[in-house]
Design goal:
The chain is an alpha/beta fold and about 325 residues long. The protein folds into two domains: about 280 residues, NAD(P)-binding Rossmann-like Domain (Rossmann fold, 3-Layer(aba) Sandwich); about 35 residues, no CATH class. About 40% of the residues lie in helices and about 15% in strands. A six-stranded parallel sheet has the order 2-1-3-4-5-9, with helices on both faces. A two-stranded parallel ribbon has the order 6-8. The protein has a two-stranded parallel sheet with strand order 7-11. Helix 2 runs parallel beside helix 4 and helix 7 crosses helix 9.
Length: about 325
């Protein structure tokens, strides 16, 4: 029987990792959250992990207040410790105890400056790169053509993204047996942790029930990731002993926030008016990439996000 340690066990992703491994009798699951261990204290963290000697460590701990750390130095220090320093220390500990470490990162490590389809005067259906196949692509496929691969060089445009990229680099530098999994636009059951927050879909569902109309940003392209699907795929990656390195795990479907709300309200049966607006409508301290679509190349593609969303909404 393998022993699995989940750090951040009460978060949106952490709770799904605990569930998926607890349902398998081949695993013993140790679930720690902030009340169980202070991950900022490397001595305490190391001793506690050495006491249990896990085979696999899942790091679902993260600072994700994207805007707060952009304009508040104390928040930035928190982000740096949790997103950058701690993953490196955890990688060292995992190496010392002979455990595999699975660390989670984000699409926000990319700057979103890869070209987006605009067509050209000679052939509006062409991607502009001279590819004959592009004239046969649908709108979603054109966006996928410019998706970020796992080995593409990262250039964050926010402090949050910088701290997450440094966390990746520290895991690579100090770890031995590791997986780095990038995700985007995570959604799922609200976190049990008091520090957790609701997903975009839960927030918009509440707004849609209270208002006759809502606004949604239609200028940032990415993919959604369903927490239960991510947890199951993480388990599969480890169990199959796949090649170590960076993995992109996100549900199929290249969309904007606006597209997601359209699907959400259709599934929920709401007739709330949805108005697409530019990102500038909601001024935010941190810059977001215009397009941060994750190309999934190392694993079997997850189901479409609308199918996952339908499952999630109809379970509520």
């Amino acid at each position: 029987m393998q022993k699995v340690l989940v750090l951040g066990a009460k978060g949106m992703l952490g709770q799904e990792l605990v569930r998926v491994f607890s349902e398998d009798e081949n695993y013993e699951v140790v679930a720690w959250d902030r009340d169980d261990v202070d991950v900022r204290d490397k001595v305490e963290l190391s001793q506690k992990i050495m006491d249990i000697m896990p085979d696999v460590i899942f790091n679902a701990v993260a600072y994700n207040a994207v805007d707060a750390c952009e304009e508040d130095d104390s928040e930035y220090q928190k982000a740096k410790v949790l997103n950058s320093v701690f993953p490196g220390e955890l990688a060292k500990i995992s190496k010392n105890v002979g455990a595999t470490i699975v660390h989670y990162s984000t699409d926000y490590v990319f700057d979103g400056k890869r070209p987006i389809y605009k067509g050209n005067k000679r052939n509006p259906k062409c991607c502009g790169q001279g590819c004959e196949d592009c004239m046969y692509m649908g709108p979603e496929d054109k966006l996928k053509f410019f998706a970020y691969h796992e080995n593409d060089e990262a250039h964050p445009v926010s402090i949050y993204g910088q701290t997450k990229l440094m966390g990746e680099k520290n895991v690579e530098k100090y770890g031995n047996d590791y997986y780095i999994i990038r995700l985007s636009k995570l959604f799922g059951l609200p976190a049990d942790s008091t520090a957790g927050k609701k997903s975009f879909f839960d927030v918009m569902l509440e707004l849609g029930k209270k208002n006759n109309s809502v606004q949604a940003v239609d200028g940032e392209i990415s993919k959604f990731t369903y927490a239960p699907d991510l947890a199951a795929k993480s388990k599969e990656i480890v169990e199959k002993n796949m090649d170590r390195g960076i993995y992109h795990v996100a549900n199929e479907g290249v969309v904007t926030w606006y597209d997601g709300v359209v699907e959400l309200y259709e599934i929920a049966g709401l007739d709330t008016e949805i108005n697409p607006v530019s990102p500038e409508t909601f001024p935010r301290p941190a810059q977001r990439p215009k397009s941060s679509v994750l190309k999934v190349t190392k694993i079997e593609q997850l189901r479409h996000y609308r199918d996952a969303l339908d499952e999630y909404i109809n379970k509520k």
